[in-house]
Amino acid sequence: MSWARALAFNLMFLGWTAVLGTVALPLLLAPRPVVMRFGRFWSQGVLAALRVVVGLDHQVRGLDHIPRGPCIIAMKHQSAWDTLILPVVLGDPAIVLKRELLLVPFYGWYARRAGSIAIDRKAGAGALRRMVAAARGAAAAGRRVVIFPEGTRTAPFARLPYQSGVAALYQALALPLVPAAVNSGLYWGRRSFLKRRGRIVLEFLEPIPPGRPRRELMVELERRIETAADALAREGEAARPVPP
């Protein structure tokens, strides 16, 4: 049954993306906020399909930790689900993503036009400068900037070194930094065909105020995110239904 549900969802996902993305192509000429609203509608459709077809729901905790104005959100990244939920929860986020994703048909076209911040990880210091400049513009427009500090998806209980991009944003923008943990990898793993029923939890943690020294910031950020992510993974494992 898990394979059948996953197949049905994947077909619905591809169909929804292709049909909606084709019909809405004229929106690529519309103002950026309009494109973001379209992207949010697309994400809501995918999440609804996950809930109905797969039985995979979600819960968001700690929304009161997110400042009303611009801020930086550093989020653990385990699944493609993570990028789906952000426009739904945050409204108009500026998400830092790999430049290669802008080449993906439909998704990349709309992500670029919606104001995502693309970074070429091979371009070194120049890429960091461009990322900071784009993030500064997004924050000036009142948007929240989201970055995945490890730079890629990791499995539950796994971790990679935190990259310098999050510290560069923190120092340059002088904004509160909100850590965020998730256990999405338990249900929708990296490059995994299967999507398992259950409930993903996304948790926003208490903000780190601006002004911390770089080394102190990185140690504290990693400690908070990894501790919370491991706790959510254990919680998810204890509650995850056994596949039929």
Summarize the structure.
With 244 residues, the chain is α/β, with parallel strands linked by helices.
Mean pLDDT: 93
Structural class: alpha/beta
Percent helix range:
40-55%
Q: Note the overall shape.
A: globular
Q: Compute the CA-based radius of gyration.
A: 18 Å
Number of strands: 7
Tell me the number of helical segments per DSSP (H or I, 4 or more residues long). 7
Largest sheet: 7 strands, mixed
Give the N-to-C terminal Cα separation: 7 Å
- Read across the widest sheet, the strand sequence of neighbours is 1-7-6-2-5-3-4
Query: What series of H and E elements makes up the topology?
Result: HHEEHEHEHEHEEH
* Low-pLDDT segments: none
Percentage of residues in DSSP E strands = 5-15%
What does this structure look like?
There is one protein chain. The chain has 244 residues and is an alpha/beta fold. The protein has seven helices and seven strands; from the N terminus they run ααββαβαβαβαββα. Strands 1-7-6-2-5-3-4 form a seven-stranded mixed β-sheet, with helices on both faces. α2 packs across α3 and α5 crosses α6. The chain starts with a helix and ends in a 5-residue tail after the last helix. The model has no long low-confidence stretch (mean pLDDT 93).
Note the main attributes of this structure:
7 strands; alpha/beta; 244 residues; 7-stranded mixed sheet
